[in-house]
Specification:
With 215 residues, this protein is of the alpha/beta class. The protein has a single domain, classed as P-loop containing nucleotide triphosphate hydrolases (Rossmann fold). The protein has seven helices and ten strands. It has helices at 40-47, 70-80, 96-105, 108-112, 117-127, 144-156, 174-187, and strands at 2-10, 16-18, 22-24, 29-33, 55-60, 63-64, 81-84, 162-166, 194-199, 210-213. Strands 1, 2, 3, 5 and 6 form a five-stranded antiparallel sheet that branches. A five-stranded parallel sheet has the order 7-8-9-4-10. α6 packs parallel to α7. The longest helix is centred in the C-terminal third of the chain and has 14 residues, at 174-187. It is globular, with a radius of gyration of 17 Å.
Length: 215
């Protein structure tokens, strides 16, 4: 599904990171581990097309991201990627339902995979350990752990091919983190989706099929 090769990124302060070659197949759960400042979030943003590739190649099936325009990359991200941000990026004045629904608002491909959006949102919320009674509440009224699950439901809605997760368990204790990862595993469709997560927490390694270390 994803092939990363000879990828190099230079920051404005001339710091340069050379990323290892990575192959991600359908159903893979891949963990990128490394200390702060090693480029984990940068790698996710390069894969998502949020940062322009400077040198090297990222291929998504037959599509080469480095050859795409900014507008095409935005469209590609909306159609193919569900992103669980470290800061969650939920909209506080919207309800839980409205925040999750945003997952398909900008993608006809993802929207076409959902026959009944309301029922699918209810299913996702339940599978991620929340009661459907939270759907009418504003996300600002939820705990961090609950908000984390809302962000995951938004990323999962419409079955995007690739789920990217940037330190999604950083605000959770060990038990809550493992519960969250188990819920993600039970919810995402292994027949057509893959998961790529970055973290500094090596205690999560046993959950993943592949581990890539950044220095």
């Amino acid at each position: 599904m994803i092939c990363i090769k000879d990828l190099i990124y230079r920051y404005d302060d001339n710091k340069t990171i050379s990323f290892p070659d990575i192959d991600i197949n359908v159903s893979d759960k891949v963990l990128i581990v490394g200390p702060s400042g090693c480029g984990k979030s940068t790698l996710l943003n390069l894969i998502a097309g949020a940062i322009k590739i400077q040198k090297g190649s990222i291929s998504f099936e037959s599509t080469k991201l480095e050859k795409m325009s900014s507008i095409s990359l935005d469209r590609f991200r909306a159609e193919n990627i569900g992103y669980i941000f470290q800061t969650l990026n939920l909209i506080p004045f919207l309800s839980v339902y409205e925040n999750i629904e945003l997952g398909v608002k900008f993608s006809t491909k993802r929207a076409s995979r959902v026959d009944d959006i309301t029922e699918e949102i209810r299913r996702l919320i339940n599978s991620l350990g929340l009661d459907t009674s939270v759907l009418k509440r504003k996300v600002s009224q939820l705990s961090i752990g609950q908000q984390q699950r809302v962000a995951a439901a938004r990323a999962l809605l419409g079955k995007p091919a690739l789920l990217l997760a940037d330190e999604p368990t950083s605000a959770l204790d060990r038990k809550s983190a493992m519960n969250f990862l188990n819920e993600i595993d039970n919810t995402f469709d292994k027949s057509c989706q893959s998961l790529l997560m970055v973290s500094h927490d090596e205690s999560l390694i046993s959950y993943f099929d592949k581990v890539v270390r950044l220095n």
